[in-house]
Amino acid sequence: MRALRSRLLKVVLLAWLLLLLLLQGAGCATEITSGMAAPGAASEGDSKPAESAKPAGSATPEQEDGPRPEDALKSSADLVTRVRAAVRDFKSISARAKLSRELEQAAAELPARRASLASRVAVATDGIRRSRRAAWVRDIRYSFAEDKQQIDALQAQVDEVSVAMASDRKRTDQLLAFWQRVKVLAVESEVSPEVREQIAEVIKEGQRAELALARPDAVIIPLQSTLVEMQELTESVLRTAERDGPDLLQDATQHDFPIWRVLQDVRKLPDPLGTALKTSRNMLHTGEIFIDQNGEQLVMHGIFAVVVLLVLLSVRSGASRWVGEEHEGQVARQTVAHPLAASLLVSMVASPLFYQAAPTVTVLAVYTLATASALVLFPRWLEPRLRRFGYLLGCFMLLDAFRLFVIQVIPLERIILTVELLLTFLMLGWTLRRRHWQASPFSERWAGFHRAVAWLWLFGAGVGLLGAVFGYGSVAEILGGGVLVSMYLGLIVTAALEAVGGTFWILTQSALLQRVNFIKAYRARVVTVVTRALRWGALLFWANVSLRFLTLDDTVKDMLGKVLGASLEVGALKVSVGDLAILALGAVLAVYSSRFIRFLLDQDVLPRLELAEGSRQVASSSIYYLALLLGFFLTLAAAGIQFDRLTVLAGALGVGIGFGLQDLVQNFVAGLILMFGGPLKVRDKIQVGDLMGEVHTIGFRSSTVRTYQGAEVIVPNSKLIADQVINWTLSDQKRRIEIAVGVEYGVDPERILSLLCEIARSHPKVLPEPPPNALFLNHGESSLDFQMQCWVSFDDFDSVRSELTVLLNHCFTEQKIGMPFPQREVALMSISPEVTEALRTLRNKAEEG
Length: 849
Prior knowledge:
Strand 1 (567-570) and strand 2 (573-576) form a beta hairpin. A five-stranded antiparallel sheet has the order 6-5-4-3-7. A three-stranded antiparallel sheet has the order 8-10-9, with helices on one face. The protein has 30 helices and ten strands. The termini are far apart. The protein has five domains: 1-36; 79-244, Helix Hairpins (Orthogonal Bundle), CATH 1.10.287; 259-560, no CATH class; 663-730, SH3 type barrels; 732-849, 2-Layer Sandwich (Alpha-Beta Plaits), CATH 3.30.70. Helix 5 (145-189) runs antiparallel to helix 6. It is an alpha+beta fold. 69% of the residues lie in helices and 7% in strands.
């Protein structure tokens, strides 16, 4: 140990010396570098003097440690070098002061573009305030995305030029100040006229550079002002869309025209085809903007779809080896039979992961591809009852997609919406009839939830239909249209959930995951748990998107915020519903996470380590409680509870321990002793009083002992520490068998001892070490008493003892060795004559026989 410490000390000292040497070398290098880079030391061949390399905000030449203006007049050669370097600097600055042709053209065109943008913003703002569909507002917002992108790009270019100009202006001011000071010193020291001419030439070049830098400001400053105004205009559109866009609660009372008036206006449509084509062009334009702005995201989305397709194709060849008849397995077999449709469906549902926002044409493309893929897969997955429902929703979606292209032909769009809502209301009403509902697949699983959603859809479709008929267009568009989108989304999410569940079932069949013990042993259970989690995730996703299309997402969030923010104050204690919800959710997550970690350790991690079973159980229990404790503290932190406020609770807990929790603490401490190096471990065979069995588990409070009759007895840990415990397998698994044997008098004892040892050695389960032994115990009342002794494994004790007893009986019978039993003499003091006669008769019969 001392040698190791001395070596470590030497290593530390050596490292410290090396560090000092490196720091000293770095300091020397810095001094050398600073000396070489002194201002004014550049040669004539340098394109830029040393001063031009100074960062913005550095000190002026008069404030630096380098040569001062007074030093410039000491040497004519040095002065000539400095003059040439300064002239080159000023000419370079003048050359860079010219604006690019693109910026000059942008400055000339920007006022007109600003006026055009302002008029478009006014029209868009009015359209947003009059709109009733989220799709319309979405496209209006996207129509300004290209303008915002161009403004941001031009603003970045202008900012770059402004920064460069500011740096050149600062450099020019520094150089001019330096040479003007030199000029003053030259007058005072009466230097030669040639020197004065050179100094004057430098100052003139610097003034030219100042004039060159002043010209771009006349363009840059108005350009920046105009760009700021244009940015504010585009941002105002986004704010208006957020504030004044479609809102079911605010727009529900707006009345426009009833359906019978719409039927009359259809004949007077000016140019419905032209209007629809214009809408289509606008939608395609927003699609082009989407592609331009999301190039990288589109590539990543495409890669994701290709990866999913390749995975399905790679596992397709092993479908014949799959085992299991779960529903997910049936879906998986049909999924790999159509990998293109399945990969397309999964990638379309995953679109929100790749894009923050999308125009209507992109959303329509995603919905169309996802629905088409779902309809391809539905016949293989679902039964005919649900399949027909999916086909009907697909037809509704095509009709709703057509309505998007005639959205500005308001009478025609209202008629199509009315027809859609009428058909939807009739379909839902027919499905919710008791006889039809009981026969539908929706009543088999999550029946209450499905029925509640169906009634909500029916109510929304009915109210939207009434709004379309009686002229409440906002209700029809927002509520009715939102119900339709919610139904389409339910179809797509259901299909995607089936595909993802089947894909995960396929992964559990792979050779890679089959190496994981808990998946191999509990594959069906794991698939069920993951599928349930996916189902809840899909439900939340569907609810969120549905509320967004119904324009109720912000309202629901505000309501939840108010509910969770409600608090109860009692003195200094303030508890909100949100804190209680976080505590409850955190507790649930902590418990289930800890259980999963323990399950993973028990099934996969610890069995792969070379540890005793007791050590594995101790590690598993310790990590479980540590994870539980960590989850508890994280939950408290998430709920905003400060740990210093737990001192009161700790004090109360201490008082509780002192009075009522002594046994609990005693058992807990005893459990720690047993777990970490105690006299017992798991699988030990023990005896505590009348209880004898095998230690099954050791916990922090109590341990479980399984008796040989099959009962599991819960024993407090303190009893296993304080009471006398017989541990039959503390050091080894051996146990001695002792069989007592009595033989009749007259048998040679040496012969019996030899037979006993020979019989013990002949049994295959008798251990050779320690060797079997036989003892002559004593002379009994009617027998010679011997004892066989041999060692066996503890688990073989009862069976070997029985088998050795049988072998002894067979051997003594073959050797005709008698095994006497106790004999007793009975003396009859008096007997009646009748009994005497009966006994004499029996004796005579026995003699005759």
